[in-house]
Amino acid sequence: xxxxxxxxxxxxxxxxxxxxxxxxxNGYANVTERTRERVQRAVDELGYRPNVLAxxxxxxxxxxxxxxxxxxxxxxxxxxxxxxxxAARARGYNVLIDQTDGDPEHERAFIAHGSRRLLFxxxxxxxxGLDQQALADxxxxxxxxxxxxxxxxxxxxxxxxxxVTASRQATDHLLxxxxxxxxxxxxxxxxxxxxxxxxxxxxxxAHQARGLVPREDLIxxxxxxxxxxxAQAMAHLLDLAEPPDAVFCYSDLVALxxxxxxxxxxxxxxxxxxxxGYDDIEDGAYSNPTVTTISPDxxxxxxxxxxxxxxxxxxDTPPPGLEMRAPHKLIIRESTAGRTTATA
Amino acid sequence: xxxxxxxxxxxxxxxxxxxxxxxxxNGYANVTERTRERVQRAVDELGYRPNVLAxxxxxxxxxxxxxxxxxxxxxxxxxxxxxxxxAARARGYNVLIDQTDGDPEHERAFIAHGSRRLLFxxxxxxxxGLDQQALADxxxxxxxxxxxxxxxxxxxxxxxxxxVTASRQATDHLLxxxxxxxxxxxxxxxxxxxxxxxxxxxxxxAHQARGLVPREDLIxxxxxxxxxxxAQAMAHLLDLAEPPDAVFCYSDLVALxxxxxxxxxxxxxxxxxxxxGYDDIEDGAYSNPTVTTISPDxxxxxxxxxxxxxxxxxxDTPPPGLEMRAPHKLIIRESTAGRTTATA
DNA sequence: GTGAAAGCGCTAACAT
DNA sequence: ATGTTAGCGCTTTCAC
Lengths: 344, 344
Prior knowledge:
Protein name (chains A, B): LacI family DNA-binding transcriptional regulator
GO molecular function (chains A, B): DNA binding
Largest interface: A-B, 59 and 59 residues
CATH topology of the largest domain in chain A: Rossmann fold
Domain HTH lacI-type (chains A, B): 5-59
Shape of chain A: elongated
Mean pLDDT of chain A: 90
CATH superfamily of the largest domain in chain A: Response regulator
Number of domains of chain A: 3
Oligomer: homodimer
InterPro entries (chains A, B): HTH_LacI, LacI/GalR-like_sensor, Lambda_DNA-bd_dom_sf, Peripla_BP_I
CATH architecture of the largest domain in chain A: 3-Layer(aba) Sandwich
Keywords (chains A, B): DNA-binding, Transcription, Transcription regulation
């Protein structure tokens, strides 16, 4: 690679010190209009580009934040990522994206202080489940914002929607339709399944508020929240002696998988089984039938997370960990309301 | 942030020079087992972590490659990205992901030599369409591998599948089913739509080989390859006096949008209209109906692209630009074959 | 407002 | 096999 034009080259040509060039390049105040112009001309003439690597080293920061998600090809995450990238870029930060494949070991490595530590100034972390070991091992100096999962650890921030309330609303919607046997797909009754458990809690609360008790055999757990899981769980439910007439799925993918199974058995959605999802991914707006869902405000989640992380990065004394709630809403579509009019 | 442990600290504690520590840390040869051990102990004791930023500067490389895609939330790209990340990581590289939002200006900025240039050692670039201006402005010193689009410029490599043949196979499949009026959705009859045009060419070739001529009013162009585009184009087709009985869609998303429109009009897939897509995204395997599609070998595309890029990065004299073809296959599902048996 | 010079922490050419 | 040392290109404290 040919030698790059350096700050010093520019300084020499402009007849000033490198300090002054640095000032001009970074838009600092104390420069006369005349020198600024002279320097600028030299910059243009030489085609000077600041060396980010050198700047990073000198400043001890990288200008990058990492966003860690379990799976990149899960629509919810890729849609969220889009918003995060936009927000970060608008604030002058690059985004380094990584997926953990849901591997707890990998998740741990990311927030522990490893060799890659200096590649990013902070991390927005969307864990599959919050592994306590990972939290214990984490580098306390690493600015961190966690998405989705909640926690009591005060060392970082958390951004998410109110899962319990949202799940309760979803269940209420099914109950309002007069459904009698409502199933839930996606529970995760183990340590790292906190988010799932909050949804189950909302599911139960909705029943209790009406003096009902959900049938335990209708609450199905799944390892992940994807289509195959949904398809399989639904198959199991339909094989029951008294199959459900409605299903609350903990993600839209699960809902799509479930719908697939229902339809392939020759049953109809929502006539035979009403289905509601969670996440509001684009797929659900174009599927047959379209999927009723809980829609978290992803844009808000993203900007909140980025802003909070940058604040944390900028602070000398780390601010206390904060719980932040983004809004959500219920979007009613065909999988519960049925087909309405023919659309264009 | 507290002061980091440096190489020199380790050297001091171990009673050796920093050079030796560097050798140990990087696993170089010339170190006695005894010194290696002593150094290692010092490293462990101090909890030393090499500073990536400093290493990058000293080596003049970043250990990162950038992958640039138009849209992150398009399943085809996010599925492809997964494979790229895996491949790059296995070879010791980080992946910096960026999306251009399909903005040609943005695409240009990425391969032109900008200030971010040194953040990555090379770029895997998946343009929406290959803008000639962007190519002209590109930094000739930047190792570059382009996905999807083809080109005559010899300065970089290209990896993709044989679009013409694949499209011809897709069309053949519809013709084999005895369909008479086959439409195509996704043509892009302008400079940056080369990939789309290759598909149209395959579409025409399949007809010609049987002495047929496709109806021109059944070839619909769309600005993008997403669901809304597919839905809208299909609506237009169904409004024709003689609507098609089969559609070749240039992406699975387009196919899903088209199917959505067909079904919402009360028509059946594939009985009234058979639909075939392109890309083999997961959605298409779980939709109702499931979508017949052209499946490019994404894993192969990803590893080929990464390997080739790393080779290019490592070379002093850049190798000549290469055209590389990844395999593809036709996957037949319900949208053309109809529903078979009830699935679990 | 501008200059001189000391790092940032590492790598690698050169010397021993 | 190991030590010495000069960069990598920038930022920034300290003088003037």
